[in-house]
Each structure stands twice: as C-alpha cells, then as structure tokens.
Amino acid sequence: MEESEPDEKKYIAKWLKWKMSPEQLDQRHPYLSKAWGEEIANGAEIWFYRSPNEFWEGMCGREGIALVKDGEVLDDCLTVMN
Q: Is pLDDT above 70 for 11?
C-alpha cells in the first residue's frame, strides 16, 4: 500500500464524510481491517472520505478510507479516482 504525501493527508482530513465501524471495514475491506487492527484497537477511527465535486469535475477526484486519530490522518487507502 502506497502512503500518501503529508500535504495530501491534510486534504483528506478536510474531506472526511462519515465514520465506519470496524465491522463495516472488515466486511468491505478485510485487508485494511487486518493491516489497521492494532491502531483501531488503540482508539483510531475509520472514515470514508471524498474530495469535493470540483475535484471530480477537474478530473482529479478521489475517495477512499482513512485511518484517523485525534483529527490526524495516520494512513489511507485510495479506492476511487478519476
């Protein structure tokens, strides 16, 4: 899994839309559930993110799953881009 650049993580932190439960993550992305299990057990949250519409209109839209703790994006997995 390729890690995002620090500036990209700042954008992702602004694009968080809704929180996922560990069970939802395990059903949809079991590999992430396994990879992030320790951080989740230590209080990190799982969030769905999506860039604003203007990014999609400009052909640089992104969405995915982010691992977040204390408002900081620790890791992410890009699932869709255009």
A: yes
Instruction: Report yes or no on 1 lying in a domain.
Output: no
- Give the total number of structural domains in the chain: 1
Kindly state whether residue 37 falls inside one of the protein's structural domains.
yes
Distance CA 38, CA 79 (A): 22
Of 48, 60, 54, nearest to 12 by C-alpha is: 48
DSSP string of 17-34, one letter each residue: EEEE-HHHHHHH-HHHHH
**pLDDT, average across residues 65-70:** 97
Rounded Cα distance between 68 and 11, Å, is: 13
pLDDT for position 71: 93
Task: Determine the structural domain holding residue 43 and report its residue range.
Answer: 6-81
Is residue 60 domain-resident?
yes
In sequence order, what are the beta bridge partners of 16?
Answer: 49
Looking at the chain, the whole-number percentage of residues with pLDDT higher than 70 is: 93
